[in-house]
Fold these 2 entries.
Entry 1:
Amino acid sequence: MIKIKSTHEIKLMQEAGQIAAAARAAAGALVAPGITTRELDNAARKVIEGFGAKPSFLGYNGFPASICCSINHQVIHGFPGKYKLQEGDIVKIDVGANYMGYHGDCADTFAVGKITEEAQRLIEVTRQSFYEGIKLAREGQRVSDISHAVQEYVEKNGFSVVRDYVGHGVGSELHEAPEVPNYGNPGRGARLVAGMTLAIEPMVNAGGYQVKTLRDGWTVETVDGSLSAHYENSILITKGDPIILTVPPVK
Ligand code: MG
């Protein structure tokens, strides 16, 4: 069942979204050659806790950190740790914040120093595919209208969308119904209604769409070793344009 959020719930989700986005920005601002992914994790956690929120991911199904940090051919769910970012890497930072029982979930891909033109284009296409997708995130459209728009844009640009992991409803649970795939035919799935809150998150590979999970049970990588990028925001469906919830707070 897809939950329609009340005005009060939406208010809390806006707070949670701003906190998650502030943490994503703080970790992203530190990205540079030589910094460890653990330092990024610490920075994000500090921001989240500074707002009186909790990292949604810490302990989620046993996940050991506050953010996911996935490097280069890693797609999602990488562990922060001792790895020092190197010039030319791309790093995906995925952050969730739980504020008074409601979650904000967002991710972005950051360049470490100078990166290749292909890597830069991959990051830009991934980000834009989110915006192409949310053009269809309006009351009356169906879930897979978003999916289709993401896939079409990504493939038109010569990249592929990951199929094994999908976007999702978000609210009092980090992952709620419906699933929001980044591929598929339009006109399928639930009809969107104002008050639904969704995490739209294209995961885009420079090569094939196939991925595998490492033996740590979490880290997902591309099978062909190609680069992967990720971009995510939590959004609110309205009667008009969707509202992006995961935007940094206005100071
Ligand atoms: Mg998510």
Entry 2:
Amino acid sequence: MAEERNYKIVTMIPKEKVAQRIEELGKQISADYAGRTIHMICVLKGGVYFMTALSNAISEEVPVSLDFMSVSSYGDDLKSSGVVRIVKDLDEPLEGRDVIVVEDIIDSGRTLHYLLRMLKERNPASLKLCTLLDKPDRRERDVTVDYTGFVIEDRFVVGCGMDYLQKYRNLPYIGVVEFE
Ligand code: IMP
Ligand code: MG
């Protein structure tokens, strides 16, 4: 584990705004998927808080099923390397399902670029991506994002599932880690 540098956490997006945006996304997705069943895939661990909140915001007329996968990207504490290894695969096949991959944040895009390509080979009926945050300035790989909570500038953030050294995932707001 890396040595801890001195830092403080400053609010970037308060919890009310996060909750309100997730409600909006839930409404939009409910409308887009009317008459279908959504199969949500959560990328552990960061996606878990957003996925539960988002699925709660989806109408009861649009049934939602869930599955989880865990990938490790051999990165350091602040960025991913793009070399993605599956640590835990999905429990169920995707064949014929309307899949939405739910992520906390898209940064370089390497993780999702790899993951989406792999999931597509499993022949879902449709495959979409929903992310709470997007940092497009840092994109190195093309990734089509279908639903975005917030586009943010290039800052290292925590909360709403995101961590720094495995901490702060539980914060209900988005905070910036400001290093001294
Ligand atoms: P990518 O492959 O560079 O797009 O990396 C995406 C993953 O890196 C995210 O799912 C997060 O786990 C992690 N990540 C990227 N930026 C941040 C950040 O600002 N805070 C916390 N984790 C981040
Ligand atoms: Mg993640």
